[in-house]
Amino acid sequence: MAKFEEEVLTKLSSLRKGLIHGDANTSNIIMQQLLGGDGMDQCWGVCGVIDFGDSHCSYCVFEVAIMLTYLMVKAVKCNCDMFTVAEYGLKGYQTVLPLGDKEKDILYIVIAQRCVQSLSSASKEICDQPENTDYIMMDFSAVKTVLLNVKDRIKLV
């Protein structure tokens, strides 16, 4: 939390803002298989996005961090390398809206903070809705794994 306050909150005025989706997860991004290659490789592309209920004006780096956090959690649950998956997700995002150096520098801090937010929210939701504990805890372990691994990628300033 201190790293987020120190490295992100103090630099908000220098970061790009825009309309963000706010919930760019694998359930809200519609993919389509693309033709090409030798038929053996499967190539996929985004063909749509749904569920704009969390859309709002915020910092573009937050959108990327939300998306990458979801992708990394999914990778952990599928026994894939979370950083390889994140790299592909980031490359795809940057074909549309490249991140600036300041955004790249804080990306892993923002991902870590998103993990902390998810874990904290889950803990509160369990207290408020104990009957939904299984659903709420569905990603808890994977989010914790992402957080523990991402913290090693944060630049120590």
Describe this structure in words.
- It catalyses: (5R)-5-hydroxy-L-lysine + GTP = (5R)-5-phosphooxy-L-lysine + GDP + H(+).
- It is an enzyme of class 2 (transferase).
- Keywords: Cytoplasm, Kinase, Transferase.
- This protein has about 160 residues and is an alpha+beta fold.
- The protein has one domain (about 1-15, about 60-155).
- The protein contains six helices and four strands.
- It has helices spanning about 1-5, 60-75, 80-95, 100-130, 135, 140-150; strands spanning about 15-20, 30-35, 45-50, 55-60.
- The longest helix is centred in the C-terminal third of the chain and has 28 residues, at about 100-130.
User: In percent, how helical is the residue content?
Assistant: 40-55%
Given helix and strand content, the structural type is alpha+beta
Q: How far is it from the N-terminal to the C-terminal residue, by CA?
A: 15 Å
Shape descriptor: globular
Give me the Rg, rounded. 16 Å
Give the SSE string.
HEEEEHHHHH
Strand content: 5-15%
Number of strands: 4
Largest sheet: 2 strands, antiparallel
Order of strands, main sheet, comes to 1-4
Count every helix, treating DSSP H or I runs of 4 or more residues as helices.
6
Unreliable spans: none
Mean pLDDT comes to: 87
Number of domains: 1
